[in-house]
């Protein structure tokens, strides 16, 4: 699989730094989160970092499948719901974490479940940005982010040698 023209590969080191930066911002928002609800699978890694940095022990998942072929979003399916106790009072005091908000479709589903929760993502694209309260880095809508768990070690052509179509 070749990289798209606007590829944003993220290393483990960079992702860890960005997730810690997100935790730093979130520490200033609320010092007493009841729980983290991470959107799987992408939200698992930043949720682990954030839970450590902010001392949050209660971690829950909501499983939403959207990228069925890794190329474009398909029909959204909720595969696992959130524990009912965390849904009380609209999710007030709960932190929702994801790696990326792209189109905002997945975020909208989870926001509808927990309208009073605080939504945080490491990366945001313009269409999804209005759905999150806190994020670290914005990339253009036509940029594909390659997360470290999706990558292997391969040679990359220098930008000057890339086909310019």
From TrEMBL:
<comment type="function">
    <text>Purine salvage pathway enzyme that catalyzes the transfer of the ribosyl-5-phosphate group from 5-phospho-alpha-D-ribose 1-diphosphate (PRPP) to the N9 position of the 6-oxopurines guanine and xanthine to form the corresponding ribonucleotides GMP (guanosine 5'-monophosphate) and XMP (xanthosine 5'-monophosphate), with the release of PPi. To a lesser extent, also acts on hypoxanthine.</text>
</comment>
<keyword id="KW-1003">Cell membrane</keyword>
<comment type="pathway">
    <text>Purine metabolism; GMP biosynthesis via salvage pathway; GMP from guanine: step 1/1.</text>
</comment>
<dbReference type="GO" id="GO:0000310">
    <property type="term" value="F:xanthine phosphoribosyltransferase activity"/>
</dbReference>
<keyword id="KW-0472">Membrane</keyword>
<dbReference type="GO" id="GO:0032263">
    <property type="term" value="P:GMP salvage"/>
</dbReference>
<comment type="subunit">
    <text>Homotetramer.</text>
</comment>
<feature type="binding site">
    <location>
        <position position="145"/>
    </location>
    <ligand>
        <name>xanthine</name>
    </ligand>
</feature>
<keyword id="KW-0808">Transferase</keyword>
<keyword id="KW-0328">Glycosyltransferase</keyword>
<protein>
    <recommendedName>
        <fullName>Xanthine-guanine phosphoribosyltransferase</fullName>
        <ecNumber>2.4.2.22</ecNumber>
    </recommendedName>
</protein>
<feature type="binding site">
    <location>
        <begin position="41"/>
        <end position="42"/>
    </location>
    <ligand>
        <name>5-phospho-alpha-D-ribose 1-diphosphate</name>
    </ligand>
</feature>
<dbReference type="InterPro" id="IPR000836">
    <property type="entry name" value="PRTase_dom"/>
</dbReference>
<keyword id="KW-0660">Purine salvage</keyword>
<feature type="domain" description="Phosphoribosyltransferase">
    <location>
        <begin position="11"/>
        <end position="154"/>
    </location>
</feature>
<feature type="binding site">
    <location>
        <position position="145"/>
    </location>
    <ligand>
        <name>guanine</name>
    </ligand>
</feature>
<dbReference type="GO" id="GO:0006166">
    <property type="term" value="P:purine ribonucleoside salvage"/>
</dbReference>
<feature type="binding site">
    <location>
        <position position="102"/>
    </location>
    <ligand>
        <name>guanine</name>
    </ligand>
</feature>
<keyword id="KW-0479">Metal-binding</keyword>
<feature type="binding site">
    <location>
        <begin position="102"/>
        <end position="106"/>
    </location>
    <ligand>
        <name>GMP</name>
    </ligand>
</feature>
<feature type="binding site">
    <location>
        <position position="102"/>
    </location>
    <ligand>
        <name>xanthine</name>
    </ligand>
</feature>
<dbReference type="InterPro" id="IPR029057">
    <property type="entry name" value="PRTase-like"/>
</dbReference>
<comment type="similarity">
    <text>Belongs to the purine/pyrimidine phosphoribosyltransferase family. XGPT subfamily.</text>
</comment>
<comment type="pathway">
    <text>Purine metabolism; XMP biosynthesis via salvage pathway; XMP from xanthine: step 1/1.</text>
</comment>
<keyword id="KW-0460">Magnesium</keyword>
<feature type="binding site">
    <location>
        <begin position="98"/>
        <end position="106"/>
    </location>
    <ligand>
        <name>5-phospho-alpha-D-ribose 1-diphosphate</name>
    </ligand>
</feature>
<dbReference type="Pfam" id="PF00156">
    <property type="entry name" value="Pribosyltran"/>
</dbReference>
<dbReference type="GO" id="GO:0032265">
    <property type="term" value="P:XMP salvage"/>
</dbReference>
<feature type="binding site">
    <location>
        <position position="99"/>
    </location>
    <ligand>
        <name>Mg(2+)</name>
    </ligand>
</feature>
<dbReference type="GO" id="GO:0052657">
    <property type="term" value="F:guanine phosphoribosyltransferase activity"/>
</dbReference>
<dbReference type="GO" id="GO:0004422">
    <property type="term" value="F:hypoxanthine phosphoribosyltransferase activity"/>
</dbReference>
<dbReference type="GO" id="GO:0000287">
    <property type="term" value="F:magnesium ion binding"/>
</dbReference>
<dbReference type="InterPro" id="IPR023747">
    <property type="entry name" value="Xanthine_Guanine_PRibTrfase"/>
</dbReference>
<dbReference type="GO" id="GO:0005886">
    <property type="term" value="C:plasma membrane"/>
</dbReference>
<feature type="binding site">
    <location>
        <begin position="144"/>
        <end position="145"/>
    </location>
    <ligand>
        <name>GMP</name>
    </ligand>
</feature>
